[in-house]
Task: structure prediction
Amino acid sequence: MPEPAAEPALSGLRLNLRIVSVVIFNFASYLTIGLPLAVLPGYVHDVMGFSAFWAGLVISLQYFATLLSRPHAGRYADLFGPKSIVVVGLCGCFLSGLSYLLAATTSHWPLVSLALLCLGRVILGIGQSLAGTGSTLWGVGVVGAPHIGRVISWNGIVTYGAMALGAPLGVACYALGGLYGLAATIMAVALLAILFALPRPKVKASKGKPLPFRAVLGRVWPYGMALALATTGFGVIATFITLFYDAKGWDGAAFALTLFSCAFVGARLLFPNGINRLGGLNVAMICFAIEIVGLLLTGIAMVPWVAKVGVFLAGAGFSLVFPALGVVAVKAVPQQNQGAALATYTVFMDMSLGITGPLAGLVMAWAGVPVIYLAAAGLVVIALLLTWRLKKWPPVQAPEATSSS
Result:
């Protein structure tokens, strides 16, 4: 974890601008993810002629690469400083675009072209892991550890913004210039971000002996488990709300997703100081309660407006869960290990999103679509109880962890 330089306390607009000036690099990395997201499945299936399995695999490879590389990203940030791994991560985003460009030039050799697309997705996953983790830690190094919750919140806002902007922009680039145009846009975004990042001053990496990964995991896992349970609500809404609306015979599933996103971003913008004022665990429990109500309303909805209210509440409730628990998780380890702690904590969300889809699909096939929202609400209840227990009986940390937080 970087050590911020001592300076007068920042407030309001200056604080937000300073945070945004760093997390904008995560915006760039997620923009390179969003740009090909709506294009590559159709390109692989319809243009290249491969099966739906390969179309899905090309997309999924990026998520698997992110999941597997994330703990290493946090450790490298602790060792070499966050700016360095952000730049390396952005280089990975650039190389992914280059792989797409090479795939376009070898389209007359379908297997080679597919292999290059897969390579690009793996490189992109590793690059995003480095850029995303590094930008959060870089932001904390710039504004100070007391504002870590706000940094994490802004990181989430730029992530959602980049994904929302990237998909339609990628479709437009593909329509104008094919895969060549899409690849060139991705490379341009990454290159601009690298050029803006290089002149920025570094923040110092913390000194001290790092904990082994098992020790970091042992201190972070209770908070990560609560996050994973709460993430199921997000997963079932993002993945199955369209099928839910279809099963009910309703229109407006896309608008429901828009409501979820607006509630998610709006809550982070409206309550930037909530975690500092109330404490991470208290905020998390409030958020769990709101998310539970939202999921229950969605599951029992008999008319569309009730489902929309439920989705909106679920988005508002889930919004601050990640930063609220994340603040507590990173303070459970010594300062020189907080990058590894943040990355390990994030893995629980990645894993939850990966598992929720297929498991919810099995439940849906057995009991119907509405049941998955009721089941997700039950899992969030468990997250609430786990967090209440953590507040009532906090885990005993080693002296070096408590002194550094």
DSSP finds 15 helices and two strands in the chain.
